[in-house]
Amino acid sequence: MKMMLNGSGRPGGVDTTFPSRSSAAAPPRSFSIAGFRITTQKLPILKAGPIEEMTSKLGITPPEMIFGDNFVAIEHVPSKWGIKFDAFGALDRVDKTGEKRLTVAYSKEWQQSREDSHDIKEVVKPFDWSYSTDYKGEVVHGAPPFQPTSTPIPIELLKRPDPILFFDDVILYEDELADNGIAMLSCKIRVMPARLLLLCRFFLRLDNVVLRIRDTRVYVDFGRNEVIREYVAREENYDKARDELASRGDDVTAALRDPNQVANLLPVIEKTAEKVELA
User: Fold this and answer.
1) Looking at the 3D structure of the chain, how many domains does it have?
2) Strand partners, 84
3) What is the pLDDT of residue 22?
4) Distance (Å, rounded) from C-alpha 242 to C-alpha 238?
5) Do 164 and 191 form a contact (C-beta atoms < 8 A)?
6) What is the maximum alpha-carbon separation in the chain?
7) Who is most buried in 56, 93, 177, 192, counting CB within 10 A?
8) 220 occurs within a structural domain
9) Dist CA 63 CA 67 (whole Å)
10) Residue 51 placed within a domain
11) Do 236 and 129 form a contact (C-beta atoms < 8 A)?
12) What is the mean pLDDT of each successive set of 10 residues along the chain, which is 279 residues long?
């Protein structure tokens, strides 16, 4: 899906004049401020035809719930810089070689059930069926690129009780992994008067095996025209995390299903930061 961001987008206001894909579908939401335009779209899960098309392009069986029309996009209108998060881009980052697959007792049965239920005979090669992705969004072709930086996202500024001018929570895909856990990718974005923060989070809970969180945060400072992108991958053995939750007296069952509760328990295994300054 091309990053086509249209509409009037009056500064400081919500613009819903974007054309929708169908008369029955809600149009994208758009909010413009300080030269930046934020656009989000939430539509129902894909039907059989689009799923088959996506499967053919990706070369892997897609998750059970695939919201292929959903996206979150940030555009800096003056410089034509932009970044977009959607399901296809994220799934295209899933390992398609099978080298990073998690080895569990259910893996063969799961793979066979996925192929049977979708009647996809041409996709039989192994792949990472946990749908783990290191997706960081896609920058508009030809736009100024990110460069490595030691500048962190200013967490203290984000803790201020600034008014939230725009907020959305967009799910991109979800799969219950044959009732053995959950894999889910979603994007949340909130816009304040001086800055915005986007969080694209992949959460994997594979029962009795592993807990995994991969977060991409995009921070925009409107006054500086500065964008910082931070990627943090966390991972821990399922039993170890469960025991830690139990030792703290937490509701273990509920906590293991809530990435916000387990995130700080999982050690950081990878972290990168990049920055771009826009004219």
Assistant:
1) 1
2) 73, 138
3) 41
4) 6
5) yes
6) 55
7) 177
8) yes
9) 10
10) yes
11) no
12) 35 36 69 98 96 94 96 97 98 85 51 50 63 96 95 96 98 93 97 98 94 97 97 95 91 92 94 96
Q: DSSP readout, 62-114?
A: PPSEE-TT-EEEEEETTTTEEEEEEHHHHHTTS--SSTT----TTHHHHHHHH
Residue 277 contacts residue 78 (beta carbons within 8 Å): no
pLDDT at 116: 54
Q: CB within 8 A of 126, min separation 6: which ones?
A: 97, 98, 101, 111
235-244 long-range Cβ contacts below 8 angstroms, 24+ apart: 235/210, 235/211, 235/266, 235/267, 235/269, 236/210, 236/211, 236/265, 236/266, 236/267, 237/209, 237/210, 237/211, 238/205, 238/206, 238/207, 238/208, 238/209, 238/210, 238/211, 239/208, 241/211, 241/265, 241/266
In the DSSP assignment, the letter for residue 275 is E
The confidence score (pLDDT) of residue 279 equals 85
Q: If you count DSSP H runs as helices and E runs as strands, how many of each does the chain have, helices first?
A: 7, 14
CA R_g for the chain: 19
Q: Which two tokens stand for residue 244?
A: 């830690």
Quote the pTM value. Answer: 0.84
Q: What count of residues does the chain have?
A: 279
Q: Does residue 6 form part of some domain?
A: no
Residue for token digits 């088959």?
52
9 within a domain of the structure (yes/no): no
Residues 51 and 40: their CA atoms lie apart, in Å, by 21
**pLDDT at res. 106:** 46
Q: Domain containing 135: what range? A: 14-277
